[in-house]
Amino acid sequence: MQEISIISMIFTAALVLICLFLVLAPFFSFDSYLNFASKGEDAASNKEVLLSTLNELEFEYKMDKISHADYKNLKKQYESQVVSIMKDEEEQLTEQTIDKDLMAEIESEIEATMNSYKNKKGEGK
After folding, report:
1. Alpha-carbon torsion, ordered 45, 46, 48, 51, to 10 deg
2. pLDDT (tens digit, 9 = 90+) per residue, 98-118?
3. Would you call 76 helix, strand, or coil by DSSP?
4. Burial readout 71-97 (b: 16 or more C-beta within 10 A, e: otherwise)
5. How confident is the model over 32-71, as pLDDT tens digits?
């Protein structure tokens, strides 16, 4: 009989802990652990969401579902967010661009090497 009460106590304690976890979990942020998307992918998806939201906002304004003041405020807010995302994307692209002078120098060296091989090959015949 003792075994049943110990097993039931362990099972009850486990059930209480699971219930506590399910009740308290929403109060803690687990996003940092679950978010595996890179910043670029996240920014691109945010940009798409904001642009579609702007499109829906304009549609709702034309259907007279929102006031002119609300439309202007929301449009300004969403556009500023899109602009900041686009600036971040542009900064990333400029960081990734290759130096034009360096590329021109490398191409001229490759061309000079190819010409020297052609000259050597022509002398050998």
Report:
1. 180
2. 677 788 889 999 999 999 888
3. helix
4. beebeeebeebbeebeeeeeeeeeeee
5. 555 544 555 677 788 899 999 999 999 999 999 999 999 9
